[in-house]
Every structure is written in structure tokens, then in C-alpha cells.
Design a protein that fits this description.
20 helices, 28% strand, globular, 6-stranded mixed sheet
Length: 836
């Protein structure tokens, strides 16, 4: 491909124009942007967006996107007028729960490097004089707020015009009033875009079509899991208090205001107030019923993305607004509409290349807040093959197939709309849909009183009420301290009893949700050798823990590779993204050399897995299997086929909890019988079913990393403590050259460290800032109470200058918790228990 391939971007809103600008600034200029509406007012979400940019987000990636958007729009100016009004942002608390949450959010912002501070009610009133800081309806009152001075208002429509102007000068072509009718393709590659004005040849096509993205994806057989939803917005009549205060076009001098306890936000519009509401019922949009507006008749008040206002839905929000801002009682609603935005099942954007059509990219469900940051990352992905920012929470293919169905997308996206301003616990599961993906053991788990949380639509037991009686037997050294209300949510002291029994007897863990792939064919070894850091060329029966890397050495994923036969491998991977990556690479390899064909299939749903772990695990399995499972019969990190009560089982000598035992795999039809055989055989040895609460604690005690939480593509193996997973003297794999140069460089600026909490009681949950010498220097990744060691554990990214034994502090809800950098692993450092 030439240095400047032919690129077509579909959509000239804030995302498409930013992307064109980002590509052009990197030297690409054979770019055409196609827009179905007029360029001066395209009529999509950008055209009516209120322009709020809040950087506050639990996702580090999303905060980075927002911060980049702030800085880019600040610098984008003409005639001395930039496209960003940095008035700041103020989130209000009118309940003690919200105020506590704002303190937690301030900690997250500190972790992500964004300046913020908690202000009291008096300062809230000074910052925003229109506020009623007295009694509100329902006995509420303003208790305080979170102020982020660098937030503000994007002048989105103006930014689009300036981006069109700037990128046009760099060679980008814009084509308005042009409808896309199809995507041309040949041999699995995109070749052009079919439009109402004819075919536009292309090597790369990027869909930035906003809420039209799902329909556009279907043109190429791609499910784009987004739902268009209407969101109410009004502008009031003039306020006497704002007369002559705010000059247009910026139109605001006070911070944007969020009243999240009532699902409302506010911004000044000259001498008026703009009010946005999420307090109404979800309003899914029927795309076939969108207003048909001829290009020549498009206006600020008439466009496809602007639906008729339903006053009855806004009445409660209007009353709450007048309660909070009494000056509104002298005003009315001058203009109101239901504007369309895109929502997804998890609230994140959709970014990446379609796995089955080379050259077709998607950047959808992106709000103005993150627009420039998303465009930058997309430009890096397209040109360099990977962005600087980790995208694992934004990947187009991150959802499982069931999560892309119309029914699932509709229900979960509507729920995200309802919960958008709710105080959400990091472990909080969705309420519906549930029981979509269950292991064959689910019926037994329910009989044992399992408390289920949900991930990737899987039901995952976190503890079992059947084990509550064990709390009376729990030795004193295993008893855990009382937790604060936040860390106690979705937790039970039963997890301590389950960890105790696993460490002293034997536990039965459901590992079925671990995604499993089959990689088979004469080219299987070559594929895995090229993509992974491990020595895959071992004899059948070997199991290898290794990494998949990006070209710059960043950790794409960590995987477990079991060689079942010469041409047959089973992989444990992290997500659907890994599956699509491996199958796309397999397809390319098979096409390049048919003799090295390889087939990658997802076998998760057709199989199941039990983790049988604990010092008495051999006694249990010995009652139902005559196979040799001694240390000589099956060494650590080896696998073989065995029979358990006549059931064919693939046993892998692995343990994520640091105890003797195996991962036992079989096909789904045998799963329930396998569970019953093992559970019955273990009764005399004190076997229990154990959940993720105990599991997470024990894996941290062993120092085992969790990809996507402890490390991502932004980290390389050596700084993440995973250098051992890179085979010595291995070359030729993706990222090898970058790793070689990293070895020669000085120590990484930050490394992943193990911390223990000094008071032995304060449990943090992750993303809290860590202070070194009184300065914020890093942040927590994973955290849990260590039931075996009797104190809380946290892993954190910290400066490499920090040493074992150093004192640090973790900020938790605004207070500093003393902690110590500790040697790892905290449990069984000599690996005696694991090796049996």
C-alpha cells in the first residue's frame, strides 16, 4: 500500500472531521469525507449536541480521550476565538452517598492526572450563584461538589467547520449531500464506497456515521452493537440574572453543572439556561421513522437527529430544575427537543477494524466529549497498527455474539441510559438480561445458594450460602475485619471460609467462563510461534503461559497454550478480541501458504472446566480416576487425557489460586456428571464449592496478573513483572524487536508493585491514587483482602525508584491509607504447594 492510501470517511460530524484532520496531520491526504447532509449542518448528533466535556470517567482511556479533546479544541481557533470554553465543571451532591462518591471520583481523577477538588456548599454557591443551597424538595440540600477546572464546553458545530477548513487545505475532499448506498469489496477487502453520486474507490473505509452506524455495519455483515436513543434537551427563556453576562458564541461564564441525583445537567446559553435530562423513560428510536429533511430545508430546528419534544416526559425535570435554580421560576421553555445519541451495552465507544472485511473500520457511539481523542487513537491504529492509548474497553469486537443481538443491545443500552448518573459500584452486575450463559454446573450452584455476578453474559458464583456454616469453624487467624459500606458491597465473609477450605482441604471452582480456543492444523505451531512470546515448539503435553504482544512490545493479552497433539492446541484467552485476532491472523497465514493452513475455533460454549485445587485434591480425584496424577505422572504445567468416572477429561496441571490441583476440561454434556462425581468423592475430605471472591483473593496472594486490569497494551512484560513469559533467545515473534530494544534501555519509568495495607483492615477496590512522599505517583490496579495472609493487598503502578519496604499511601474516599511496598508473591514464594 502506498504511503497515502485512498481513505473514505463516512460522516462529517465531530468524529469524522477530527479523524480526517488527524490523518492529514500525519501526512495522509488522499481522503474523502462523505456526508449525507449538508456540510454546514450535517444533521447528526453533533449538530444538536450541547457540547459538555467532562473528563471525569472511571476509565483511564476515556479520560485520556476527553483530555485530548479539551486540549485540541482549545488550540483550534480562528479570529482569536477557540472552539472550547474552559469554564470548568461542577458535580453536585445532595445526598451523603453522592458526596462520598464524589470523593471517590476525585481519587480516580488524581489517578488519571486530572486536577479536581471537593468544594463545600458555600463554595458551590460562590462558583454558581444561581444555586439554591437551602432545602430542596424531599428534604435534600446541596452538601458539596466536585470541581474540575479544566472541563468546559465544546463549540462542536464551529469546531467541525474549522476542522473541515483546515483539513481541506491539507488535501482532504469533502462531499456533502451524498448518501452511502453500499460498501464495495473484493476478496475480503474493501474496495470502495457506493454512493448516490457514484463509486468512490477506497483502500480504507471508516464508519463515523453516529447513530446510523448499525445500519452501515449491516451493509458489510457486521453487527455494530449500538442503539439510538432520544435524550431531552431544552433552552429556557432569558433570565434577568444573566442579562449581558455571557457573550456569544461562547455563551457561558459559569461551570457546566451536573445534578446527578436528579439525572440533570445545565449550561449557560447567553442569557438562557440549557437543561439536559436523563430523568425520563428510555426512548429507543425507530430509524425508519426519522424525519425526512431535504438538504435545502435543514436548520437548527429541523434535522434528522432532532425529534419532537414530549413535554409530559420533561415536567418532573422542569420542577426539579426550578427547585435547584430558583431563578428558572420566572422563565419558561423557549425551545425543547428529543435529540438522538448512541448508546452501547456497556456505555463505551466502538473502535476498530471489522474482523471479516479488511480495511473497514468503525468509530461509533462516540460523544463530543471524547471525539478528538478517539480520532487520534483511530488515526494511530490505521497508520501505525496500534494506538498509544489502550483500547481494550473500546474494541469493536469486545462483545460476545449474544451481546450483539438486537434484543440484548436494546435492553442493555436502555439500562445504561437509566443508570448513566447513578452511583455504580465496580462489581455491580446488570439486573437483566441474566442467565444467558450458564455452565453445566449452574443447577448445582443454585442448589448451594450461589450468589452470582455477571461478566460477558456469564453467570459467575462469587460465594455459596451453603458454606455459611463454615464461619463458625473458621480459625481466628482467618477471620476478617468489618468492612466499610462500599467495600462490603457484593462481598460476603463466606469468601474467607471458602479460601480457608481451599488452602487446607480442597475447593471446586467453576472455570467455564474462561474463553477457550482450539487452534488446529499443520500451521498451528507456526501461527502461535509467530504471535506469542513463549516456546510453543514443545512436545505434546506441554502447557505454556505466554503473552501476545503489540509491535511496540505492549501486552495485547496473556494466554495459556496447551499442546494436545502435534497439530492441535487449546488456548485459554481473555476475550472475544483475542479470538478475532487469532482467527484473522490464521486466515492470512492460510492464504499466504495453503500448506500451513490453520483453523481457530471458539470451543467455550461446547466445553466446561472445573478447577479442583487444594492440598487434598489428589485424594479426591484418586477416588474417581485410576490415572497417574502424581508429580511424576503429570508434572506442573503439563496436560494429558484422563478418565474421571468414565468421563473423558483433559487435565491440565495449573492453578490460578496457588494450590495443588488441575484444571479439568470436558465437553458440556458431561459437565454436570463430572461436578457430581468430584463433589461426592470429596465429601470425606471437606470439599466445598468456592466462588470468585475467594479466587480473587488467592490469585493476588500469588501475584498472578489480570490482563486488562493489572496490565494492558500500554505496558511491556518487564515492567509488568512478566519477563519470565518471554522465551529466552526467541526471535521472530510480534513485538520481538521492540522487546530487544527495551532490554537495552534504562529501567521503565513505572513498574507494577505489590502493596500491603498497614492497618490490616482497609480494603480498597482499584483505581485509587497512590502517594509517594506526599505526591500522587501511581494508581491501584487490582485489590482484595488477603484471607491467607490476614491483610489487604493492592497492586499498583509506581515509579521504578520505589523499593520494597518503602512506605506509600493509598487515597480512599478522601483519606490516606498507609501501605508498604512488599516482596511478591506474598504466599508460597518457593512454589512448594503448587508443585505438590
Amino acid at each position: 500500500m502506498s504511503a497515502s492510501p485512498r481513505v473514505v470517511i463516512i460522516g462529517a460530524g465531530i468524529v469524522g472531521t477530527n479523524l480526517a484532520d488527524e490523518l492529514a496531520s500525519r501526512g495522509w491526504n488522499d481522503i474523502t469525507v462523505v456526508e449525507q447532509g449538508p456540510l454546514e449542518l450535517a444533521g447528526g448528533s453533533t449538530s444538536h449536541a450541547p457540547g459538555l466535556v467532562f473528563q471525569n470517567n472511571p476509565s483511564r482511556t476515556m479520560t485520556e480521550f476527553a483530555t485530548y479533546t479539551v486540549n485540541k479544541l482549545l488550540a483550534l481557533s480562528k479570529d482569536g476565538q477557540s472552539c472550547f470554553n474552559q469554564v470548568g465543571g461542577l458535580e453536585l451532591a445532595t445526598t451523603p452517598e453522592r458526596l462520598a462518591d464524589l470523593k471517590r471520583k476525585m481519587g480516580v481523577m488524581t489517578s488519571w492526572g486530572v486536577d479536581s477538588r471537593i468544594v463545600d456548599a458555600d463554595e458551590c454557591e460562590k462558583i454558581y450563584p444561581l444555586l439554591n443551597t437551602g432545602k430542596l424538595s424531599g428534604g435534600r440540600e446541596v452538601l458539596g461538589g466536585l470541581l474540575i477546572p479544566t472541563d468546559g464546553l465544546a463549540l462542536a458545530a464551529r469546531a467541525v467547520q474549522l476542522l473541515i477548513e483546515r483539513s481541506s487545505e491539507a488535501g482532504v475532499t469533502y462531499q456533502g449531500n451524498t448518501t452511502v448506498t453500499g460498501i464495495a469489496q473484493e476478496g475480503g477487502k474493501v474496495t470502495g464506497v457506493e454512493t448516490s453520486e457514484g463509486l468512490i474507490p477506497a483502500d480504507i473505509v471508516i464508519s463515523c456515521a453516529g447513530f446510523w452506524g448499525r445500519e452501515l455495519g449491516r451493509m458489510v455483515g457486521l453487527e455494530v452493537p449500538l442503539l439510538p436513543l432520544a435524550h431531552q434537551y431544552v433552552v429556557t427563556t432569558p433570565l434577568a440574572e444573566l442579562e449581558g453576562v455571557n457573550e456569544l458564541p461562547k455563551g457561558a461564564s459559569k461551570p457546566i453543572l451536573r445534578y446527578q441525583d436528579k439525572d440533570l445537567y445545565y449550561r449557560e446559553w447567553g442569557d438562557r439556561i440549557g437543561i439536559g435530562s436523563y430523568a425520563h423513560r428510555p426512548m429507543p428510536v425507530d430509524m425508519s421513522a426519522l424525519p425526512k429533511v431535504p438538504a435545502g430545508e435543514m436548520s437548527d430546528h429541523r434535522m434528522p437527529s432532532r425529534l419532537d419534544f414530549t413535554l409530559e416526559d420533561f415536567v418532573p425535570a422542569w420542577e426539579d430544575s426550578q427547585d435547584l435554580l430558583p431563578a428558572l421560576r420566572s422563565t419558561g421553555i423557549q425551545d425543547g427537543f428529543n435529540g438522538i445519541f448512541s448508546f452501547t451495552p456497556d456505555g463505551g465507544p466502538l473502535m476498530g477494524e471489522a474482523p471479516d472485511l479488511e480495511g473497514f473500520f468503525v468509530a461509533e457511539a462516540v460523544w463530543v466529549t471524547h471525539s478528538a481523542g478517539v480520532a487520534k487513537a483511530m488515526a494511530e491504529l490505521i497508520i501505525d497498527g496500534q494506538p498509544e492509548t489502550d483500547l481494550h474497553g473500546c474494541e469493536l469486537t469486545r462483545f460476545e455474539k449474544v451481546q450483539t443481538s438486537d434484543a440484548y443491545v436494546s435492553e442493555t443500552s436502555q439500562q445504561n441510559f437509566v443508570e448513566i448518573y447513578d452511583v455504580m459500584h465496580p462489581l455491580q452486575p446488570r439486573e437483566s438480561p441474566r442467565d444467558l450463559r450458564v455452565s453445566p454446573f449452574n443447577v448445582r450452584q443454585k442448589e448451594l445458594g450461589a450468589f452470582f455476578l455477571e461478566s460477558a453474559a456469564w453467570e459467575r458464583p462469587h460465594w455459596f450460602e451453603a458454606n455459611r456454616g463454615l464461619l463458625e469453624e473458621l480459625p481466628a487467624e482467618w477471620r476478617t475485619p468489618e468492612r466499610d459500606d462500599w467495600s462490603a458491597m457484593f462481598h460476603s465473609p463466606i469468601s474467607a471460609a471458602e479460601a480457608w477450605k481451599t488452602r487446607t482441604a480442597v475447593g471446586l471452582f467453576d472455570m467455564t467462563p474462561l474463553k477457550r480456543l482450539s487452534v488446529a492444523g499443520p500451521g498451528a505451531q507456526a501461527l502461535l510461534h509467530r504471535l506469542s512470546t513463549g516456546n510453543i515448539a514443545k512436545k505434546p503435553g506441554a502447557v505454556t503461559y505466554c503473552l501476545l504482544l503489540e509491535h511496540d512490545g505492549g501486552i495485547r493479552s496473556d494466554v495459556t497454550v496447551a499442546r494436545l497433539a502435534e497439530e492441535d492446541f487449546q488456548l485459554g484467552v481473555n476475550s472475544n478480541v483475542d479470538f478475532d485476532y487469532l482467527r484473522v491472523e490464521a486466515r492470512k497465514q492460510s492464504a499466504a501458504d495453503p500448506s500451513q493452513w490453520v483453523h481457530v475455533s471458539d470451543i467455550t460454549g461446547s466445553t466446561c472446566c472445573i478447577g479442583l485445587w487444594g492440598p487434598l485434591a489428589r485424594e479426591v480425584i484418586g477416588k474417581v480416576s485410576s490415572d497417574d496424577l502424581t508429580n511424576d505422572g503429570l508434572k506442573y504445567f503439563r496436560t494429558k487425557e484422563i478418565s474421571v468416572g468414565g468421563i473423558p477429561v483433559t487435565a491440565m496441571r495449573l492453578s490460578y489460586v496457588g494450590e495443588l490441583g488441575w484444571e479439568l476440561y470436558t465437553t458440556a454434556e458431561y459437565g454436570l456428571k463430572l461436578w457430581d462425581l468430584l463433589f461426592e468423592a470429596g465429601q470425606e475430605h471437606g470439599i466445598i464449592a468456592a466462588g470468585r471472591g475467594a479466587f480473587n483473593s488467592m490469585r493476588l496472594e500469588k501475584g498472578y496478573r489480570l490482563w486488562g486490569t493489572d496490565m494492558t497494551s500500554e505496558h511491556h512484560p518487564y515492567q509488568a513483572g512478566l519477563g519470565f513469559s518471554v522465551a529466552k533467545d526467541k526471535t521472530g515473534f510480534v513485538g520481538a524487536e521492540a522487546l530487544a530494544s527495551l532490554r537495552e534501555q534504562p529501567a521503565a519509568a513505572k513498574i507494577l508493585r505489590c502493596l500491603t495495607v498497614d492497618d490490616g483492615t482497609s480494603v480498597v477496590l482499584g483505581k485509587e491514587p497512590v502517594y509517594v512522599g506526599g505526591e500522587a505517583a501511581g494508581y491501584v490496579t487490582s485489590a482484595a483482602y488477603g484471607f491467607t495472609i490476614g491483610k489487604p493487598i493492592a497492586y499498583a503502578w509506581l515509579p521504578s525508584s520505589v523499593s520494597e519496604g518503602d512506605a506509600v499511601a493509598i487515597e480512599y474516599f478522601g483519606r490516606r491509607v498507609a501501605a508498604t511496598v512488599s516482596a511478591e508473591p506474598l504466599f508460597d514464594p518457593g512454589m512448594e504447594r503448587l508443585r505438590g
